[in-house]
């Protein structure tokens, strides 16, 4: 211990320590680059417009100092129906994710554990659809949903009408089924021993019962992964509601942003609005970061 | 599972009161009935998802094909009329904005794909070290990914202003030598400005994909390399990089497809301007097919975009098959 043996191990130790210092330095610089715009956003949301602009030239731009208040947030609530937008986004997100979990896991169950005609063909077709980006079908789909029938009540009398535009269901139904979610469920379910199904069959259980009571409870991680991977796109919907929802009281938060760019942009209020719709997602992410990270990693494993 | 005896007969398959055939026959009959029931139940459980995929994926894809040969309009009393290849001719010969959009899309992808993939790998190598606090850095690098691209675009639009944060930071770094500029209002810098924020927003995602690839490489390989006296650089070239082949293909393909689909940043920050220097394929498809109500022509542009994606997917299949 006390006598230095050779120079080599010392040098190696030195090299390793130097590398560690460099790594921390690099990661810290990168952390600043990744965080500064968001810190700037949160801090600016608390300042009046004039101070935001005058602070830009100094480090104060990143510090909550000076004339700090929640005025911008109150201003946002006065200017646009934020609570309505938030409600719409929560409703659309919860229903899209929730119904998606049920529908896609049922399909994954049928595709991985049951024998039926055309099963392998259907599975390969589902996987083939994975390469269709939504941007390809967005424009034709607006045309398509504008022609779909819908049931309306007119003075208490049910009646058919055409066109799904300006509704909640046009924001939800097209995104429930998800080929990637079906694929993930199929993969996960096929790792659960099939002997469980056979035992349950002997006890007289129907297929839906086996799915509901035996297989689904064993597939918690798959449900969590799919929930996380479908939550973000649902909350962040922009292109689709921009096109199919003109009615203000049905619009989600991302589209609601447009109201701030009409006349002179009040940047303080814009920053308050963007903070308001970002903070909930950040809170969810930071509390489930481990699950988020493993979900994203799982989405790459198939490659 | 073709032998009838190995499949258990559900108790309700032959209820008392059914005709009672010979034991063996009855068993076979029950099996076949159970099979049929399984077939029906299986299809039934898959049906909701399959019907929805048919309605909102397969039919729109077919519509993209069909409508691109018509003059369909979003709101029109007249039914769409077949116009042959007119839309395609128009795109490639009579619509300079389309050609410019295609060029912009290619430029965007040509820069974003290699840079974002390389930066993602660099980040992954950094956060793959076994040193304290590394998880916190992973989380920080991932935060822009969970931030909506709409929010990110608005925020950067503000920062790119002439009196904005980006100019003032460059000014500080260059000790006042910098003349501020309005990045998004200049045709020569607008696309570059969008490229920077796009990489900033999405690189954390690909860091995680690379990271999961890195973690599949067995530690024993590195030990063996170290015992042979390999330097870190040699370890990377001979152990890490070959082990990342399939991850690399996946990362490159996902970035390419995402890059070709560039839309939100353009819509929020520049509306395709100045002078179409940031217009992209998807932006142009939405402008024509939705805002100007020309569904038929919009479908044509969408279809051209899809063909590009398809080519890339086929190249990917080819590349991965080579290795296997």
From TrEMBL, chain A:
The keyword Transmembrane helix applies. PROSITE patterns: ABC_TM1. It is a multi-pass membrane protein. The chain crosses the membrane at residues 21-43, 85-109, 121-145, 168-189, 210-235, 270-288. Keywords: Cell membrane, Membrane, Sugar transport, Transmembrane, Transmembrane helix, Transport. It is found in: Cell membrane. The keyword Coiled coil does not apply. Residues 86-288 form the ABC transmembrane type-1 domain. Belongs to the binding-protein-dependent transport system permease family. This is Multiple sugar transport system permease protein.
From TrEMBL, chain B:
InterPro entries: ABC_transporter_permease (IPR051393), MetI-like (IPR000515), MetI-like_sf (IPR035906). It comes from the Bacteria. Belongs to the binding-protein-dependent transport system permease family. Keywords: Cell membrane, Membrane, Sugar transport, Transmembrane, Transmembrane helix, Transport. It is found in: Cell membrane. SUPFAM superfamilies: MetI-like. The chain crosses the membrane at residues 45-69, 106-127, 139-159, 190-211, 243-264, 296-315. This is Multiple sugar transport system permease protein/raffinose/stachyose/melibiose transport system permease protein. Residues 102-316 form the ABC transmembrane type-1 domain. Its main location: membrane. Residues 1-37 are annotated as: Disordered. The keyword Isomerase does not apply.
């Amino acid at each position: 211990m006390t006598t230095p043996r050779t120079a080599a191990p010392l040098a190696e130790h030195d090299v390793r320590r130097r590398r560690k210092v460099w790594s921390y330095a690099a990661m810290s610089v990168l952390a600043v680059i990744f965080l500064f715009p968001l810190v700037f956003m949160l801090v600016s949301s608390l300042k009046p417009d004039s101070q935001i602009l005058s602070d830009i030239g100094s480090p104060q731009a990143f510090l909550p100092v000076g004339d700090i208040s929640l005025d911008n947030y109150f201003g946002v609530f006065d200017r646009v129906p934020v609570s309505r937008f938030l409600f719409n986004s929560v409703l659309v997100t919860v229903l899209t994710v929730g119904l998606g979990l049920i529908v896609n896991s049922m399909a994954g169950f049928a595709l991985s554990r049951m024998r039926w005609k055309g099963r392998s063909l259907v599975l390969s077709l589902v996987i083939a659809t994975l390469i269709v980006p939504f941007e390809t079908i967005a424009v034709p789909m607006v045309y398509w949903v504008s022609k779909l029938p819908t049931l309306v009540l007119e003075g208490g009398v049910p009646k058919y009408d055409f066109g799904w535009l300006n509704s909640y269901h046009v924001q939800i139904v097209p995104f429930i089924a998800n080929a990637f979610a079906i694929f993930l469920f199929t993969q996960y379910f096929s790792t659960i021993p099939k002997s469980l199904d056979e035992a349950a069959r002997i006890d007289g259980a129907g297929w839906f019962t086996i799915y509901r009571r035996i297989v689904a409870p064993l597939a918690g991680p798959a449900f969590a992964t799919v929930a996380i991977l479908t939550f973000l796109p649902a909350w962040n919907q922009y292109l689709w509601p921009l096109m199919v929802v003109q009615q203000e009281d049905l619009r989600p938060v991302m589209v609601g942003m447009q109201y701030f760019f009409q006349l002179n942009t009040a940047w303080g209020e814009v920053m308050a609005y963007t903070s308001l719709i970002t903070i909930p997602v950040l809170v969810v992410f930071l509390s489930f970061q481990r699950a988020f990270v493993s979900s994203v990693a799982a989405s790459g494993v198939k490659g | 599972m073709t032998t009838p005896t190995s499949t258990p007969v559900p108790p309700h398959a032959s209820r008392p009161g059914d005709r009672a055939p010979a034991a063996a026959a009855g068993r076979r009959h029950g099996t076949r009935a159970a099979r049929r029931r399984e077939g029906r139940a299986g299809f039934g459980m898959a049906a909701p998802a399959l019907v929805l995929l048919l309605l909102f994926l397969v039919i729109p894809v077919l519509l993209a094909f069909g409508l691109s040969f018509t003059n369909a309009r979003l709101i029109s009393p007249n039914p769409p009329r077949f116009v042959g290849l007119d839309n395609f001719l128009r795109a490639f010969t009579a619509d300079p904005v389309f050609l410019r959009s295609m060029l912009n899309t290619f430029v965007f992808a040509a820069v974003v794909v290699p840079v974002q993939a390389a930066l993602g790998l660099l980040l992954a190598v950094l956060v793959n070290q076994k040193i304290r606090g590394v998880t916190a850095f992973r989380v920080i690098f991932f935060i822009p990914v969970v931030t909506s691209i709409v929010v990110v675009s608005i925020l950067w639009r503000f920062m790119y202003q002439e009196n904005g944060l980006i100019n003032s930071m460059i000014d500080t770094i260059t000790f006042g030598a910098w003349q501020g500029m309005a990045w998004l209002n200049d045709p020569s810098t607008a696309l570059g400005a969008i490229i920077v924020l796009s990489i900033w927003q999405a690189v954390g995602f690909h860091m995680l994909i690379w990271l999961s690839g890195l973690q599949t490489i067995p530690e024993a390989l590195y030990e063996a390399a170290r015992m042979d006296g390999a330097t870190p650089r040699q370890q990377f070239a001979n152990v890490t990089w070959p082990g990342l082949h399939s991850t690399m293909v996946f990362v490159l393909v996902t970035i390419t497809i995402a890059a070709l689909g560039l839309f939100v940043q353009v819509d929020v920050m520049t509306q395709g301007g100045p002078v179409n220097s940031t217009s992209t394929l998807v932006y142009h498809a939405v402008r024509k097919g939705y805002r100007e109500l020309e569904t038929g022509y919009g479908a044509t542009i969408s279809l051209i975009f899809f063909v590009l994606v398809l080519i890339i997917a086929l190249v990917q299949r080819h590349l991965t098959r080579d290795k296997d």
